[in-house]
Amino acid sequence: MPLMRGFFSYPFSVVAVDVGGTKIAGAIVRYDDPDARPRVEGATSVPSEPERGGDAVLASMTHVVAQLMEAAPTPLAGIGCATAGVVSPRTGDIAYANGIMPGWTGQPVARHLAKRFGVQATNMSDVHAHALGEARFGAATDLESCLLVGIGTGLGGAYILKGNVIRGFNGVAGHLGHSLHHQAGNLECACGAHGHAESITSGTALVQRYQQVRPGDPIDRTCMGDEVARRAYAGEQRACETLSFCGEALGQAIGSWCNILDPQAVVLSGTVVNAGPLWREAIDRGFAQQALEPLKSTPIVEGQLGSAAPLVGAAENLLDALALSFDPVALAGE
Amino acid sequence: MPLMRGFFSYPFSVVAVDVGGTKIAGAIVRYDDPDARPRVEGATSVPSEPERGGDAVLASMTHVVAQLMEAAPTPLAGIGCATAGVVSPRTGDIAYANGIMPGWTGQPVARHLAKRFGVQATNMSDVHAHALGEARFGAATDLESCLLVGIGTGLGGAYILKGNVIRGFNGVAGHLGHSLHHQAGNLECACGAHGHAESITSGTALVQRYQQVRPGDPIDRTCMGDEVARRAYAGEQRACETLSFCGEALGQAIGSWCNILDPQAVVLSGTVVNAGPLWREAIDRGFAQQALEPLKSTPIVEGQLGSAAPLVGAAENLLDALALSFDPVALAGE
What we know:
CATH architecture of the largest domain in chain A: 2-Layer Sandwich
Order of helices and strands of chain A: EEEHEEEHEHEEEHHHHEHEH
Oligomer: homodimer
CATH class of the largest domain in chain A: Alpha Beta
Number of helices of chain A: 9
Structural class of chain A: alpha/beta
Distance between the termini of chain A: 32 Å
Strand order of the largest sheet of chain A: 3-2-1-4-7
Number of strands of chain A: 12
CATH superfamily of the largest domain in chain A: ATPase, nucleotide binding domain
Largest sheet of chain A: 5 strands, mixed
Largest interface: A-B, 51 and 51 residues
Shape of chain A: globular
Helix content of chain A: 25-40%
């Protein structure tokens, strides 16, 4: 449900950039026709190297944008960003980032790019952008509401209502991984608190749990469960048990979130969604245990856009800001 | 933020009725002036006696409405209902009710009243109506978003965005009590599932937990913690420990919900909110443990409208339906 696009003059393009803890990805999102879905072209990426500090990450991001600005066909609507960290819904600045990205807190991402390139720029959190992409042109298109659940290193998500992402008053909405889970007991979460769903449902948790039951057989924690899934597929019982436990715990958490939000559908995304049928069936089992009676048939589907989702969402966020005549962030030379 | 009220011709009145498991309350809600808050007048109530079955409850409700229709000053905008159970957001019928109200599921509450009295009628869940009342004229007035938490026999709530209650695709949104809690372990909830926040945070849970530590000293479970609070105030250590545990667990749950929803404020309502400073301080302590860093200063305040909230919310829901020119439910004689 794109908002009020009637007055845009097609075709046009948007420079979209997605800054994560591992890489900075960028592309040109082309809007050729009001009835066609946007095309993502000229995808490029560089390592984020967040240990170099927030200023360096912003400089790398600016460099990626500069290259795309040169390549983008005119007219250009502006720059749409999606970044790791909590993004202020009012300014597009980084309101909060954890220790994985030192010096990222406070970076005036959108304002900096708007001033540097003399075009409109917006920023939103990468998870919110991912959800917005799926809401506009992916698995959640035309749904009244949807809960996107992203399972990767951590566990994040977003609640989408009438095609828009609920960002929250502080930009924090959707931190599903940091909600309580009855099976997480007193496990410590990456955030420092205890009892969080992320501790038993994320890709990291999957690998950690597998390694606890097979301490003599270390596997790379960054594999996000691929290796565990491979071993389960090969019939290894411990791998099967781990996938089953983490999937069921995730399904229980999804049931719990649905009891709070009652979305029309749940969309699964992130690197762990390829963990296979054992994991997927466990999700359905856990969900059935926890979802209230009228919610038991809520569809749980997979995302459709993959890594293009945050870029499309970032572009859509820029267009929303332009269309709604919000001062999206800043004009050049403010 | 009442919606589009400009074309209403003041003064007018609404017959409002609130059907719970214990009593059916009704009143006339008077809108005398666009700038004044509505006045709740002529409050009346009868026992619900739900064990008599859904048809009997609907008959009692109809009787309460009939009396109020006679007393209501004209012009009358219609009938706004708030009822226990899950209410279909599309029809106002009872989509689902638990065993406490046998035969309540399927009752066409709003359609029945519209036909019977020849006026417009709407229905929404009582918890949603309570939240809508607080959003329009109580503790959540003018907030961008708010999470209402109702602590009584059970634990319910509602997320309010821009003055409107998020009902969910099936009308189930806001069942906060049926979200997971890391301290609930494998405790069985009233709904039959395990590990739910309600099991350790509701008024019922408060009394149950106190009785476990003082098995030889039974107190009435329907007191909703008043007696436990009284004993705590008198200095009884077990009562203090119980209040402290349940309050802290509730605060943790509120932190967890804020990590998902990031509301501008949290509003506490329900019969347990008078449990005293020990309970209230424990909520703040638990919240601080669980809320993510940018959310730690989210205000947690008390509701302002008390038992008038669902009646005001039910009236507002009717007016929204009229103002938005939705076919609110049905016209007489359909």
